[in-house]
Every structure is written in structure tokens, then in C-alpha cells.
Amino acid sequence: MVELLRPEDTIKLAVQLESVRPVRVRYLIVVSTLSNKDESILLGMDFPSSDSEVCTIGLVLPVWSDTQVYLDGDGGFSVTSAEETRIFKPVSMQTMWSVLQALHGCCERAVKAAVIPGSGLEWALYYHQHIESDRFCLNEWEVMNDLESVRKDNRVSNETLIKEHLRDIMRTEDLDNLTSKMVHSALRTRIGFDMRPYKEYIDNEILVTMAQMDKPSKIFDYLFLGSEWNAANLEELQKNNVGYILNVTREIDNFFPESFTYMNIRVYDVEATDLLPHWTDTYKFINTARKSGQAVLVHCKMGVSRSGSTVIAYAMKQQRWPLDVALAYVRDRRSIVNPNEGFMKQLQTYNGILTASQQRHSTLWRRKSREQRQKSVHIQDGKEEGREDEEDEGLDDDDEEEEEDEDTESTDEQDDSAEEKVDSAEEHEVGSLRGHVTRYVTFCFC
């Protein structure tokens, strides 16, 4: 593919397209030239088969200042340039999102540079002269779908229903292999009515959802929750003042090890994965970023399950929130967060562990311990001495309550110091607490 380019030209993006014949492989290439980075062209490349190393050019489409891009409502998009229209259908929604971003960038640069026919893109002539694909391939590049006009009516309720199911589908499916046709088919099965009048709306909503998934979600001022895309976007990371990255995946490498402080939790997104034992370390790592004055990005593949669960666990401990509050808070800032069933059970267990731990270290727990010691004092030292100790103990309890109120209103630094002490104790206790959460909670409230 690269061998067909001039030495001074570069490939900005290459995406695979659907083909009428499964054996053939088609690619749409976005090409720019070093002599003028404001100029771009689209090349259609044809491979006879997936094993072939030889390809030919079947399409050349310059990007002028009047070039426009439209969704076709059927899982693809059309590009109109100098009264010439071509239709493209990427093999997945992720590739479609990527190429649309690239095309809009090319169009914006062409407008700013006033790239119009007759005043630029002379280098595109070279590729026009090297179109060598066979007639069958050329016909496929030149094909036009039938246009269909849909009357606009009051469809708010149906569109709301479609939107809800669409987001659920995209939250649970692998976007690398998910196509627009698969989404339409799944919606038709779930909802049960004809999707054809809503084709354009569905494709637009797919892209909106992709855009939301593409941006890291700000959970706290110092904590972002995102995806593999965000972890690979250096400019975005720097813009968000990210200095630490928590990678909760086995399959994704660290993209910028020389620029950021990384922590890796190498696990897969399956229900059998035991994520809970890592949450003490991830909590400390996130707080290290917070204390440094920099932000941390927590990510997995899509920012849905593994990283979402880890951020929920952090919020539960940092804010002393129960699971339902932390889950609602995180989802309010990133609606696609959806821990798998195994992680949800672990979050419920972790909720019990934190509750039991907080009770153990509460004033009530300490008071119960002192009352037990007080009984020993009565037996050993007599009633008079016991009464004096009881009065002192009452004063101590009042002091304890005042100190606890002050702790609630203390600065972040004081909270951090106290939290670190609890962390140290919890780290040794988490094994036994996990197996006996019910016993601890029952004892605390007896």
C-alpha cells in the first residue's frame, strides 16, 4: 500500500471497508503531502484477497473546501466533493468514528486554506494516472445507494426508547467487531418495530455515544476515567494535567512509559477475575497522584467494567460512601460504566469490608472495648477506683466525640494521615474480613 505513494506523501489514516465480494479487501486511505499539509485526498485501495500483498488504486477523491460528509443512515457515510459523491461503509463503528474525525479535520483545513479546484491539489493528478483496479472494483467504488425520504413526525417516544437500548448494546458489545447492521438488527429484535424510518437517527446516536465514550470522564478534579483511546492520546493527557496512569488491563500496553507514572493491574474483563485484592494498592496510587497536584487517568479497554469498578471502589473508600451512592455518582459522570456481575459481587463484599472496618475504628467500637476493660477494673481495684475510672472514661468519650467531629471538618492532609493508618490495618485484615463480613457487621450493631 505504501509503495503506491509518492515519497513526499504520507498516510494519515487507513480504514477497512465492507466489500460486495467477501474475498476482496477494500481500504479507504487519507493521504496528505509534506509540501502542503492543508491538502488531502482520499484513495480507494483494492486487494484481490486478504492474503494478497499487492493492491491497486481504484478511487481518487480530492478534498476541496466545499467537500461535505454525510451519514447515509445505513451504517456508512457519503463524501461529496466537486459534485462527485462516493459512499463508504467501514467494517466497524470504531473505524467509522475514526475516519469521520479525520475527514472533518481535512475539510476544516481545506476551508481555511481555500483549497478549490484549479488552485491546488495538482499532485492528485499523479494518482488519477495510476488507477489500475479492474472494472468490478471500479464499479463498487462508483456505486450509489437509492435515496429514501422519510417524513418528519413526532417520534420522540420511539427515539427515546431506541436511544436507551442503543446505549445498552454499545455498552455490552465489543466495538471492534460491532457493525451498524448488527446494531440495527439487535434494536429490531429488542424493540420489535421497523427500524427503517430511524436509520439516520440511529447512526447519529451511535456516533454521539462513541463521542461520549471517546472522552475521558472527570470523576473528581484529580481523577479521570477513560478508555484505551484516552490512554493513547498524549495531547489530551497533557491538557488534563495527567501525570499518573492506572492501566487495568492485561491486553493493553503502556503507551508513554517515559512521560507518565504507571501502575498496571493485569487482569481480563471476566467474572472470574479477582479484582478486589488490588483495590488497596489502587487506592494508594490514586491518592499519590492527588497529593502530587497532578491528575490520574484510570482506564481499561473501554472505561466500562474493570476501570469503572476500580474507580467506584476508590470513591467508596475515599468519600466513605456506600456502594449505591458511589455507583450512582460515577455513572452520573460516565453513563456507560457497567461492572460485570463478578465485579459487582466484589464491590458488594468491599462495601461490607469498609463498613465493618469503619465500625471497628469508630468511637462506638472503642467505647465497647473500654467498657469491657472497666469491668475488669471493678473486679481488681474495687468499686471506688472503678467509679473514678468511669468518670475519666466518660470524659475520654466526650473528648473522643469532639475529636471525631474535628476530624470530619479537618483538611485533606489530616484526613490523608488518618486514612493511611486505617489502610495499614485494613491491608492485614482484608483477607479475614472478606470471609466474615456478616459476622463483623452483626457484632457491631449488637
From TrEMBL:
Biased composition (Acidic residues): 387-418
GO cellular component: cytoskeleton
UniProt xrefs under InterPro entries: DEK_C, Dual-sp_phosphatase_cat-dom, Phosphatase_SSH-like, Prot-tyrosine_phosphatase-like, SSH-N, Tyr_Pase_AS, Tyr_Pase_dom, TYR_PHOSPHATASE_DUAL_dom
EC number(s) reported in the record: 3.1.3.16
Catalyzed reactions: O-phospho-L-threonyl-[protein] + H2O = L-threonyl-[protein] + phosphate
Example of a GO MF term: protein serine/threonine phosphatase activity
Keyword tags: Cytoplasm, Cytoskeleton, Hydrolase, Protein phosphatase
Tyrosine specific protein phosphatases domain ranges (all copies): 280-334
Record field: compositional bias (Basic and acidic residues): 371-386, 419-431
Pfam families given in the database record: DEK_C, DSPc, PH_SSH1-like_1st
The DEK-C domain, residue ranges: 156-211
Tyrosine-protein phosphatase domain location: 215-356
Record family assignment: Belongs to the protein-tyrosine phosphatase family.
Name of this chain's protein: protein-serine/threonine phosphatase
Organism: Gouania willdenowi (Blunt-snouted clingfish)
The encoding gene: si:ch211-203d1.3
